[in-house]
């Protein structure tokens, strides 16, 4: 059996040309990740990636120029990219910049990707003007329909984590409909292999209702684990990173690749 590989990146917070995020241009950090991926995970490599998933906060604040810049940079990937929305994104501006990106019947940026290791279901938790994540009845209905279509393994992707991580400032903006999400997933619990999310800007692994989940430092910046109540402490000194996910049968392994030379 041949392992199936894909990549997970998150929270690039791409600014428009000349723009900054917390005093820095975040583009070189994402560029370093893309260059490393191109060198290590292209066709013919030991671990070729079938695709990359970016779990939201693609742009600094949903600017059209930021999405145009991101699109140009993602052309350097050696594989297709599947893009999710986060709270800093703008659905209309994203769709204008990436008109080929799949959407559901209601215009949400959601899709099901069939792979040899099961279905990858990608959710849209963006709620305009709000930092927290939402999954309305229409979005959850789409998910329920996709789960009802098959009986194979499922990997789930979304921006906002469905659980408290113990970082007060970030926990306030987690997914607000977590229990509604669980009600949809519960009948299929045995099929859900892993949940991948962003938003926290921290390397994290654990489980939610017994389902394994993981996240990464954002390529743009990091959030301190020691953030105090009412305050979120950010830094650009930690290395940006991406994850190589290796799936073999029922086993899922998430390797993190740090890029210390790109830390600023």
**Biggest sheet: strands side by side, in what order?**
4-5-6-7-9-8
The CATH topology label is Purple Acid Phosphatase, chain A, domain 2
Residue share in helix: 10-25%
Helical region count?
6
Please provide the ordered H/E string of secondary-structure elements. Answer: EHEHEHEEHEHHEEEEEEE
Distance between the termini: 41 Å
Describe the structure.
This protein has about 260 residues and is α/β, with parallel strands linked by helices. It has a single domain, classed as Purple Acid Phosphatase, chain A, domain 2. Helix content is about 20%, strand content about 25%. It is built from six helices and 13 strands. A six-stranded mixed beta sheet has the order 4-5-6-7-9-8, with helices on one face. Helix 2 (about 65-75) packs across helix 3. It is globular and about 45 Å long. It starts with a strand and ends in a 6-residue tail after the last strand. The model has no long low-confidence stretch (mean pLDDT about 95).
Explain briefly what this protein structure is.
This protein has 264 residues and is an alpha/beta fold.
Q: What brief labels describe this structure?
A:
264 residues, Purple Acid Phosphatase, chain A, domain 2, globular
Topology:
Layout: E1 4-9, H1 27-40, E2 52-55, H2 64-74, E3 81-84, H3 91-97, E4 111-115, E5 118-122, H4 137-148, E6 154-158, H5 168-171, H6 178-185, E7 192-197, E8 204-208, E9 211-215, E10 222-223, E11 234-235, E12 241-248, E13 251-258
Parallel strand pairs: 1-2, 2-3, 5-6, 6-7, 7-9
Antiparallel strand pairs: 1-12, 4-5, 8-9, 10-11, 12-13
């Amino acid at each position: 059996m041949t392992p199936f590989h894909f990549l997970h990146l998150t929270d690039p917070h791409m600014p428009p040309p000349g723009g900054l995020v917390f005093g820095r241009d975040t583009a070189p950090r994402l560029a370093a990740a893309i260059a490393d991926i191109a060198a290590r995970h292209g066709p013919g490599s030991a671990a070729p990636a079938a695709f990359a998933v970016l779990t939201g906060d693609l742009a600094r604040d949903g600017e059209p120029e930021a999405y145009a810049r991101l699109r140009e940079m993602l052309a350097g990937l050696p594989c297709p990219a599947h893009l999710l929305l986060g709270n800093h994104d703008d659905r209309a501006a994203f769709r204008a910049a990436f008109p080929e990106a799949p959407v559901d019947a209601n215009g949400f940026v959601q899709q099901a990707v069939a792979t040899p290791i099961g279905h990858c279901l990608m959710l849209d938790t963006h709620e305009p003007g709000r930092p927290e994540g939402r999954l309305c009845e229409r979005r959850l209905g789409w998910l329920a329909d996709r789960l009802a279509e098959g009986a194979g393994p499922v990997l789930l992707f979304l921006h906002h984590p469905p659980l408290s991580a113990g970082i007060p400032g970030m926990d306030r903006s987690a997914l607000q409909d977590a229990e509604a999400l669980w009600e949809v997933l519960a009948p299929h619990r045995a099929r859900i292999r892993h949940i991948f999310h962003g938003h926290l800007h921290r390397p994290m692994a654990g489980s939610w209702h017994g389902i394994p989940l993981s996240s990464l430092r954002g390529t743009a910046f990091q959030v301190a684990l020691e953030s105090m109540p009412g305050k979120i402490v950010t830094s650009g000194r930690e290395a940006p990173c991406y994850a190589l996910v290796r799936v073999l049968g029922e086993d899922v392994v998430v390797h993190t690749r740090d890029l210390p030379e790109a830390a600023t």
